[in-house]
Amino acid sequence: MLTILFDGIAYGMLLFILAVGLAVTMGLMNFINLAHGAFAMVGGYITVLLMQKMGVPFLVCLPLAFLGSALLGGVLERTLYRPLYHKPHLDQVLFSIGLTFMAVATADYFIGSSQQIIQLPEWLKGRTELGQGDWMLGMGHYRLFIIAVCAALTVALQYVLTKTRFGSRLRASVDDQRVAAGMGINVNVVFLGTFAVGSGLAGLGGALGAEVLGLDPSFPLKFMIYFLIVVAVGGTSSITGPLLAALLLGIADVAGKYYIPKLGGFIVYSLMIMILIWRPQGLFVRKGGK
Amino acid sequence: MSTVHPVPAGAETVLSAQGLVMKFGGITATNNVTLNLKKGARHALIGPNGAGKTTLINLLTGVLQPTEGKIILEGRDITELAPYQRVRRGMVRTFQINQLFDTLTPLETLAMTVSQHQGLGGKWWQALGSQKRATERCEQLLEQFHLTGVMAQETRVLAYGKRRLLEIAIALACEPRVLLLDEPVAGVPAGEREELLQTVAALPADVSVLLIEHDMDLVFSFANRMTVLVNGTVLTEGDPDQIANDPRVKAVYLGHGDEINDAMEVASAEGAAA
Amino acid sequence: MTNSPTNSQNLLLQSGRWKLWEYPLWLLALASPFVLSSHALIINEIAIVALFALSLDLILGYTGIVSLGHAAFFGMGAYSAALFAKLVMPDPLLGLAVGMAAAGLLGALCSATILRGTDLTRLMVTLGVGLILMELANKLDWLTGGADGLQGVIMGPLLGQFEFDLSGRTAAWYSITVLLLVFVVARRFVNSPFGATLKAIRDNRLRAMAIGIPVTSRLAVVYTVAAALAGAAGALLAQTTGFASLDVFEFHRSADVMLILVVGGVGWLYGGVVGAIVFKLMQDAISSITPQYWTFWIGLFLVVLVLVGRERLIRPWTWMRRGSMGSKS
C-alpha cells in the first residue's frame, strides 16, 4: 500500500510539472489551450531522438527537452497565440484542437505510431525496498528521481513567483492585466516568458514521463484530460492548488487502477465531475478563480 | 417648483429593505440600510459615486445575497428568492450599462419579453409573433419608446440613445409593479435625452419607481421622495424640498470632509432615517 | 402612426417561414438515395452526421455552451439501439425511440453538471462524461462487446415493409427522413417564444435572468433535447451499419462534429447539413490518400479558420434574409 502511495506521488508530481504551465497561462491569459500536451510530446520526442540517434546521455537530454519546448512555445505564442487572446473560448478551443491534431499527425507521419522506448541509464534502474509485508515501501529509483526533480522544480517555481521581480510582475498580471499594464509592466513580455517556461516545463515533463506514461503520437490527446483536471480542480490562482490537485489525481489514479482494475480511469473522471459539481471554481481556489 | 405629485397619504409600502448589510470580505458596502418604497412613488436614490447605490439595487434584485437584513415585496419576504423569481413577482430593474441582446432586433427582443410575461415563454410549438395579444403589446411599447423606426435592425447596430430606450422598454415589457431604474440617462447624448426623459416621466402612475440618478435636474423634476446614500449608509430621507435644503446633503456633494463625517455619525446614531 | 399589426407580425413570422428554395432542396435530398443509388452509403453517412451536428447546434448555436463531449450522447444512442435490436426486438423505429430516450435521459442527468461553473469547468465535465462512457463500454464487455464492439445487429423491416438492403438505399432514405422530420421540428422550436428566450440566454444571460427567464431550467431542457437528438443520430448509425463500436465515444467525434458545425455556420440550423456534406465529401477524398494526412489537414483548417476569423470565411446567415442568427464572434 505504501508503494502505491509512493507511485501515486511520483505520478502526481509528474502531472504537476506537466500541467503547471497550463494552469499559469490559463490564469494569466484566460486562454483555454488544449494543445499543451503537444509541447510535452515534443519534449519527449526530442529526448528519444537525441538518445537514439545521437547517443546523448539521458540527463543531458532533460534540459534540452525543456529548451526545445520552451523555444517552440515562445515562437508560437508570439505568432499564433497572441492574436487570439481576446477571442471567445470556442475559438480558442477550436484553435488548440487544430494545433494538437497537426502535432499528432506530424509525429505520426515522421516518427511512426509505435511506443517509444527510453533506455534509462543504469543508475536509474532498480528499486529499493524498505520495511516488509503490507507496509513494504517499494521505491523504484526512477520514480524517486522524478519526485526529486519535480520537487526541486516546484520549490524553484515558488521561489521565482514569490521572491523575484518577474514573479511579482507575473502575479500582478494574473490579478489584473490592465492595472498591471498601467503600472508599467510589459504584459507582452510577461506572457511570452510565462508561456515559454510553461511549455518548457511541459516538455521536461514529457521527457521525464516517457518511460512512465508512454510516448506515442496520441500522447497529447490521451493526457489532455488529466492536465485539464489538474487545472480545473486546482484552480489557476496559485501553484499550490494545482500541486495538490495533481497529487490527488495521481494517487487516485494509481490506487484506483490497482485496487479496482475493472473500473480504471472511470474513478478519476467521476471524481473530477463530482468535484466540479460541488465546487465549480475548483477545489483549491482562494478567491473566485477564472 | 416640482411638477411631481406628492406621495398620496397613507399609501402602502410595496418594497421594503430592512437593515440590509452587505460585506465583501473586510469591506462593508451596505451598512444597515432601510428603505421603504410606497405605492406609486417616484423615489430617487442619490449620493456620491461609490456610495453603494448599485450594490443596493443588486441586493434588492437578488444578484447579491445580503450578509444581513430582509427584503419584503408586496408583503412577502423575498430575501431568499432567485432574481428571476423576483421579476415574476413584479420587481424589474434596468441596468446602468446597457444589457441588451445584441443579435436580436428590438422587435424580437420585446416580443420575446412580452411573450415570456404573458406566460407564453414555455411554448415551443407556436411561432413567435403568432400570438396577437403579445404582438400588440409589443407594438405599443415600440411606439411608446420611439423604436418603431429601428425595430427590424439588430440591436448591436443601434445608436446609443436608442439602445438606452430599448433598455428601459425591456423592463416595461415585463409589466413591473416595482421598477428600479439605474441611471437611465447615463451617457445619453444631449439630443436624445428629451426623448428618454419624456418616456420616464410618462410611466404609469401605479408603477412604483426607485430611481438612481446623478442628473439633479432629472431627479428634482421627477421625484417626490429622496434617499441620500453615502458610503453605504443612509444619510437622510425626505421630500425634495427638505433634501434640497439639508446642509448635510450639500456638504456631501461639495465634499467637506469633516462635515461629512459629522453628518455620518449623526445619521448612524439616529438609526434608520425617516 | 402605427405599423399595421400584420407588419410586425410578418417580420417576426418571416424567420420561421420556409423559403422557396428549401422545398426543392429537401425533395432532392429525399430522392437522392434512389437517383444516386451507388452513393447511397455516403448519403446515409452524411445524413447521420448532419443530424448529429444539428443536435449540437441547439446547444452551441442557440445557448452558446461549448461542449466537447457531445459524442457521449451519440454513442449512448448507438449502443442502446443496437442492444435493443439484439436483445429485445429488431424494429427500427422502436429502436430509434429507445436510443433517443436513453440519450435524453443521460442528457438530463448531465445538464445538472453543465449549468454551473465556468467555460472551462463545463468543457471538462462534458469531456469527462464522454470518457466515462467510453470506459464503461470498454469494461462492460459482456454487454457491449468491449473493444471489439457490438456485432451482428440485424434490423427488421422499416414500418414492416421496407427491408434494409445491401445497397443501403433504404438506410439512406430512412436517415434522410428522420433528419427532415427533426429539422422541421427544430425549426419550429427555435422560432418559438421558447427559442427566443434561448437566444436571449445566449446573448446576455444576466439580462435574461433579469427579465424573469428561468435560465437553468431552459438550459436543462435544451440540453436534454439536444442529447436525445444526438442519440437519434447514433441509433441511426448502429441500425444502418449493423454494429456499434467504441469509436462512437471517441473525442475525435466530438471534435469533428464541432468542426462541421462551425464550417457550416453556427446558429442557423442548416449549418449542420452544409458542414456535413462538405466534411464527408472531403474526408472521402482526402483520407483515401493517408489517414494521417486527414488529421493534419483538419488541424490546419481549424487553425486557419480561427486566425482568419470564422465570420470572414463563411457568412451563411446573409443567405436567409432575416433568418435565424449566424455565427457569433
Structure at a glance:
The complex is a heterotrimer of chains A (290), B (274) and C (329). Chain A has helices at 2-29, 36-54, 58-81, 89-111, 141-163, 165-175, 177-182, 187-213, 219-234, 240-259, 265-278; strands spanning 127-130, 137-140. Chain A is mostly helical.
General description of the model:
- The complex is a heterotrimer of chains A (290), B (274) and C (329).
- Chain A has helices at 2-29, 36-54, 58-81, 89-111, 141-163, 165-175, 177-182, 187-213, 219-234, 240-259, 265-278, and strands at 127-130, 137-140.
- With 290 residues, chain A is mostly helical.
- Chain A has a domain at 2-118 and 148-224.
- In chain A, helix 1 packs across helix 10, helix 2 runs antiparallel to helix 3 and helix 9 packs across helix 10.
- Chain A is globular and about 60 Å long.
- Helices cover 37% and strands 23% of the residues of chain B.
- In chain B, the strands form two sheets. Chain B has a six-stranded mixed sheet with strand order 6-7-8-3-9-10, with helices on both faces. A four-stranded antiparallel sheet of chain B has the order 2-1-4-5, with helices on one face.
- In chain B, helix 3 (106-117) runs parallel beside helix 5 (160-173) and helix 5 packs parallel to helix 6.
- Chain B is globular, with a radius of gyration of 19 Å.
- Chain C has a single domain (20-321), classed as Orthogonal Bundle (ABC transporter involved in vitamin B12 uptake, BtuC).
- Chain C is globular.
What labels would you give this structure?
heterotrimer, B: 274 residues, alpha/beta, six-stranded mixed beta sheet, four-stranded antiparallel beta sheet, 10 helices, 23% strand, C: 329 residues, mainly alpha, ABC transporter involved in vitamin B12 uptake, BtuC, 71% helix, disordered C terminus
